[in-house]
Amino acid sequence: MNEKESNVIFGTEDILRSLCNSVTKVLSVATQGDIRYSGMVQRITKTCLKPDIGCFVLFDGGFSGLVVINFSAQAAMELYESYLLNMGMAQSDLAGSHTSDEVANVMGELMNQIVGDFTGKVARELQTHISQNQPKMLALNKQVMLSVDTNLDQPEARRVTFYTRRNNIFYLELAMDRTEFIKLNDFEQHEAADPDELLAQVNAARATPSAAAPTASASEQDEFLKSLGM
Length: 230
What we know:
alpha+beta, Chemotaxis protein chec, 8-stranded antiparallel sheet, 6 helices, 38% helix, 24% strand
């Protein structure tokens, strides 16, 4: 291996691209729709939860950070309905509002699958380990600034725009320590699960009550917002 190959560097944008690919992979398979993201990325100074549904996950280990996804009501309902209809549920059995606990549960499950796919790729591609907390999904009517990224030594934050099959928009925000991974030696990567296997995992998570991300009750949401100073 020559010197150029040994100095391959993976930085913030590479990690962000990997995360974005996990979002499109999981949601496209789960909803059987084309999920895509913008080729442009925004540098931002703060991450925040925004209406109508906001979800965040903290991760730690080889590097630390925060992932936030903000869904419009239209985007959340499209993904929720497409996912459950794809699983064979009847339209009449679906929730009619994005504020429903059922919608938050489903979006939390999908977020958990996204982060799980991402952490698996980090282990394969970057040869390190990160762990994450259970995704927190909240229906919001106002913006909530998250200051957790101020705990990072050299924070970098990015925002990426995503589009659903019906062109509804949602946003992913990533805040993490500034870091670079430099390839020293060649190594073999284990192949990722194919889309059919991934869908089976998503369906299994949906069918298993213990696998579902917990949905905060109204009182729990009030306590959470109060802890953030809202």
